[in-house]
């Protein structure tokens, strides 16, 4: 094995074709990917490039036609749907564009439910929920129903739900896709904060501004990785930031 | 910078160093350390063209300083500036010509060029994000300048994406 932080996830030669009406859509066409602990990776590309399909494959929400995924070094080829569901409670948290909260459960219950399902005591679940909601600026919203909250608030609840079991990996599929710019900044600020504390994150976004918060950006085109770049904040050439901000005479 | 200095003088007379401080306060970290030498040179030129007038003020313990004020001609120039709309940002830039000519030279691959350019834009975008986070949130002008730069860069990145989509199909 190579050195460096531990592998959280490894994908090898993932292929997924959607068979709907009309011609088959080759959404993911042979993707190799290694995610290490503590990385913040953005997957960006045009809509229809297959980046959401890739994220769904990584979270076991869709199964690949071929190829394999290792979670924490363990091959998932033989995992059943039920096993994947368990992994999504314990090892993989997911947030979606449209939040996917349970609409007839309160905010508190939405966050506590996955903790209880994962075997936490009601008291533990409650403590975790209280801490997360406080951290995410949602104190006082515990008894609200999701429908009573703004989009930004719902996404923060979804983030709390995804993180309540301290999963090693957080997957975010266009988490700001349905938010206004203020709520977008808030969600990005929170993702960056969790990342600074060591959370491994994969963020799928078509928005380059969001992608630049990550320290590794994968450009996804036509089902393939076109480029995989570490951002170190230093432009290779050119005037960089001062050139962009310069006021001309 | 000529018109920026004129605009700063519209409120009332000031000396060069005050104008530098005004600019710093207005734009915050979005425009770090305006070059004071450049400010003095520009003020000299503005005076020569009659848009401002300087007046030496004696200082007991320090060298004399020159306080400038706007002339009628200067105020008129400023008025004209506000009547005109600004030019669009560049559309056909250096990178575009590199990309367009690459196949003829045989010296570079278009997709490679796009990937390299994207990395640079993303790094700059990252720096802008950091700058925006570090800048005082209440300095709206500075925040808007940074946000404008980010939106331009985002458009450039979107456009690179379009180039990649189109050119990959040809491969």
TrEMBL record, chain A:
<protein>
    <submittedName>
        <fullName>ABC transporter ATP-binding protein</fullName>
    </submittedName>
</protein>
<dbReference type="GO" id="GO:0005524">
    <property type="term" value="F:ATP binding"/>
</dbReference>
<dbReference type="InterPro" id="IPR003593">
    <property type="entry name" value="AAA+_ATPase"/>
</dbReference>
<comment type="similarity">
    <text>Belongs to the ABC transporter superfamily.</text>
</comment>
<dbReference type="InterPro" id="IPR017911">
    <property type="entry name" value="MacB-like_ATP-bd"/>
</dbReference>
<dbReference type="GO" id="GO:0022857">
    <property type="term" value="F:transmembrane transporter activity"/>
</dbReference>
<dbReference type="InterPro" id="IPR003439">
    <property type="entry name" value="ABC_transporter-like_ATP-bd"/>
</dbReference>
<dbReference type="InterPro" id="IPR015854">
    <property type="entry name" value="ABC_transpr_LolD-like"/>
</dbReference>
<keyword id="KW-0813">Transport</keyword>
<dbReference type="InterPro" id="IPR017871">
    <property type="entry name" value="ABC_transporter-like_CS"/>
</dbReference>
<dbReference type="GO" id="GO:0016887">
    <property type="term" value="F:ATP hydrolysis activity"/>
</dbReference>
<dbReference type="GO" id="GO:0005886">
    <property type="term" value="C:plasma membrane"/>
</dbReference>
<dbReference type="InterPro" id="IPR027417">
    <property type="entry name" value="P-loop_NTPase"/>
</dbReference>
<feature type="domain" description="ABC transporter">
    <location>
        <begin position="9"/>
        <end position="247"/>
    </location>
</feature>
<dbReference type="Pfam" id="PF00005">
    <property type="entry name" value="ABC_tran"/>
</dbReference>
<dbReference type="GO" id="GO:0098796">
    <property type="term" value="C:membrane protein complex"/>
</dbReference>
<keyword id="KW-0547">Nucleotide-binding</keyword>
<keyword id="KW-0067">ATP-binding</keyword>
UniProtKB/TrEMBL annotation, chain B:
<dbReference type="InterPro" id="IPR036390">
    <property type="entry name" value="WH_DNA-bd_sf"/>
</dbReference>
<feature type="domain" description="Transcription regulator PadR C-terminal">
    <location>
        <begin position="91"/>
        <end position="168"/>
    </location>
</feature>
<dbReference type="InterPro" id="IPR036388">
    <property type="entry name" value="WH-like_DNA-bd_sf"/>
</dbReference>
<dbReference type="InterPro" id="IPR005149">
    <property type="entry name" value="Tscrpt_reg_PadR_N"/>
</dbReference>
<feature type="domain" description="Transcription regulator PadR N-terminal">
    <location>
        <begin position="5"/>
        <end position="79"/>
    </location>
</feature>
<dbReference type="InterPro" id="IPR018309">
    <property type="entry name" value="Tscrpt_reg_PadR_C"/>
</dbReference>
<dbReference type="Pfam" id="PF10400">
    <property type="entry name" value="Vir_act_alpha_C"/>
</dbReference>
<dbReference type="Pfam" id="PF03551">
    <property type="entry name" value="PadR"/>
</dbReference>
<protein>
    <submittedName>
        <fullName>PadR family transcriptional regulator</fullName>
    </submittedName>
</protein>
